[in-house]
Amino acid sequence: MKSLSVICLSLILVSTLTCKKEESQSDVPNVLVDFTIYLSQPSNVNLNVVGGWVYFPYGVKGIVVYRSGQESFVALERNCTYQSNNSSAIVSVDTANTLFLKDTSCGSKFYLQDGSVANGPATIPLKQYHTSYNSATLTVHVYN
Questions:
Q1: DSSP state of 49
Q2: Do 53 and 66 contact (CB within 8 A), yes or no?
Q3: Which CATH class is domain 26-143?
Q4: Would you kindly state where each structural domain of the chain is located, as residue ranges?
Q5: Tens of pLDDT along 32-65?
Q6: Selection from 128, 130, 102, 96 nearest residue 115 by Cα
């Protein structure tokens, strides 16, 4: 009887882990991202202050780069993770509250600080790219 309980518990654990794995996966394609932002360029002036952000034409549907700290930056894919294959599944900085990114087609909201979900229907965070800041050259490298 004890072995039956162990088997049942094992099956429940495996099925739970499998479900969580599926929920954490996104249909946003993986594409090569590797570009450098020059903070001295006028088009990037908003990134010279903490809280500033700029859109870039890379990734799947664009990337938003946000300056989260004096020497830290966050780069997020603009392809919404809810029905990501939909051509209108694109997030933009919310004009009413610039702490969020919003997909106006499905209504999902994400935190600009890290791309986590603030409001659904999306349940998966935005894809995040790596950033590396060089204070000597005033550049930000964005890559995956």
A1: S
A2: yes
A3: mainly beta
A4: 26-143
A5: 999 999 999 999 999 999 999 999 999 999 999 9
A6: 128
